[in-house]
Design goal:
Blueprint (H helix, E strand, L loop, with lengths): L5 H15 L4 H20 L10 H13 L9 H21 L25 H11 L5 H16 L3 H5 L6 E2 L6 E5 L5 E5 L2 H13 L1 H5 L19 H15 L8 H12 L4 H8 L4 H4 L1 H17 L13
Antiparallel strand pairs: 1-2, 2-3
Amino acid sequence: MAGLGLERELATYLAHVAVERGLSRNTVAAYRRDLGRYVEYLDAHRVTCLADASPTHVSDFAQAIAAGDDGRTALAPASAARTVVAVRGWHRFALAEGWTIDDAAIDVKPRTTPARLPKALSTDAVESVLVAAGVGDGVGALRDRALLEVMYASGARVSEAMGLDVDDIALEPGAESVVLRGKGRKERIVPVGHYAADAVNAYLVRARPALVAAGKGTPALFVNARGGRLSRQSGWTIIKSAAKRAGVEDVSPHTLRHSFATHLLRGGADIRVVQELLGHASVTTTQVYTLVTRDALREVYQMAHPRARGGVAPRPE
């Protein structure tokens, strides 16, 4: 079977994941980077199209990126696993398109990596960060407080929060909610509490009009000093600055989202509900948060139960 050539096959596949599957620009860029390394490896072994790639090529590539034997820096286990997943997806697509007569990657599985527990703040730490975000008399303080309140109330990713338009948030008492657009532009409606609603109301009335006036008009909910939509980088900077003022360390772009999920589960929320709120396609992704709550329960048990290891048994009367 005549192949299209690796570069054309890769370009076709990247167009597919971008258009047909609706993956984000950043995700497509990661696919291009990971699969580009695979193309270089196949080129070095005189493989000119996917139809000529064998299971040995795929398995050897998986080992090479983990060890750095392909002349590039060795990848961390999670990155190597992600790259193998990308390769498997490309070969699966090639089979479906009729480029190959079999799937050379079907038996090559990504190495399992230990689950990295998300960083979640305590409720007191979250409160400190939210308060710190609103310190100041300017319009920026009102915007920053509203942004962080919405992110913690809804579990939104930074990109989802930046993508909100004014029409995406409902502020009617008792029905406060936001429409978030996640991976693949899939929409979900997430309720938010009155704290977030109050912060957004204050921002819309007392700050956003002044910010928008500096630009050409935008439907964006959160705008910058030039009147345009806030970028992901700006949102990240706002979070970091608020955390620094609050004296809270180890804050990542997903910290408020992780805290949202962990606090819901600790409060007794069903994991399926949390999965829906987070926009996870599989409950398996959400289950990592149960490890966090189990650890917290274990710590409490160890400290409080008289017969737990580390506990103090009561003296006999």
